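Supplementary notes for students who missed Thursday's class. We covered one full example, reproduced here. Read the sequence, then the structure, then the short commentary at the end.
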Amino acid sequence: MGAASARITNFRDGSVAFEQLGVEFPTAWSLNATNIVAQKYFRGTPGTAERETSLRQVIDRVVDTITGWGSDGGYFTDAAETEAFRAELKHLMVTQKAAFNSPVWFNIGVPGVPAQASACFILSVEDTMDSILNWYVEEGTIFKGGSGSGINLSRIRSSAELLKGGGTASGPVSFMRGADASAGTIKSGGRPVAPPRW
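Structure (token representation):
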């Protein structure tokens, strides 16, 4: 591990888009990997004492939490097996032999933050206004945690179908536009979320 500076510049004008000095990363890590982890996965407000400054903190936060869950759930036979799991998982992370998805790095082990670890969720929607609006709430909550979602809209009437009260249905495409507009304004801990659409 060595001290480094994480800095991302705007390719258009060269201005600094993100900077955190004095971060700690393995010397074998690329500058690109250092910049991405420092900008996206360090938790805490930049410039404050609560801000993570080391890959070691990030890995400890995530792996210690996962190991604790495994221990609490009875997945290990004894303390030695628990510690072997913890050490091996940290080794995989620090040597980049494996990596978790973004929601794990964003959320796991952060006090007061839901432990959302899945990258994608599949949602269901019915042809009612309550269900459609609930879809927007669920999707927004998922995006806020750094994940994405997919949805089957086949149950929503097309824009050529009539409504019981008169007029025609808005159709699934109009509701997709609303969901996309909403998703475009949601950020995950200050990080823009690019939600996948299937």
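Commentary. The chain is about 40% helix and 15% strand. Helices lie at 31-41, 55-72, 79-94, 102-107, 129-144, 172-185. If anything here is unclear, bring it to office hours.
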